[in-house]
């Protein structure tokens, strides 16, 4: 399979972000997740990390935060996924 045929195949797959005609109006709360993390001993508190989620602007936001912290003297690491510029960077 060539790179271009693989890209063509990927681009032909369903785009779930654009396919939702009537998004849910349910009120999602984090209470269940907080309870689960508490039951697990709050493992998220062991690693100083910033997790950025969502559909738009994650890369820019992460880069700005990493730059600010780095310039403030913190040791930082920035991991982004699925890809930055090319599909070959995708995990």
From TrEMBL:
Gene3D superfamilies assigned: Mur-like, catalytic domain (3.40.1190.10)
GO terms assigned for molecular function: ATP binding; dihydrofolate synthase activity; tetrahydrofolylpolyglutamate synthase activity
GO CC, alphabetical: cytoplasm
SUPFAM superfamilies membership: MurD-like peptide ligases, catalytic domain (SSF53623)
Key words, A-Z: ATP-binding, Ligase, Nucleotide-binding
Family: Belongs to the folylpolyglutamate synthase family.
Protein's recorded name: Mur ligase central domain-containing protein
């Amino acid at each position: 399979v060539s790179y271009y045929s693989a890209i063509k195949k990927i681009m032909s797959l369903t785009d779930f972000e654009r396919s939702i005609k009537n998004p849910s109006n349910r009120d999602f709360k984090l209470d269940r997740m907080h309870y689960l993390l508490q039951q697990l001993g709050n493992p998220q508190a062991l690693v100083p990390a910033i997790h950025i989620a969502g559909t738009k602007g994650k890369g820019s936001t992460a880069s700005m935060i990493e730059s600010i912290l780095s310039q403030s003297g913190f040791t930082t690491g920035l991991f982004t996924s699925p890809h930055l510029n090319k599909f070959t960077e995708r995990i």
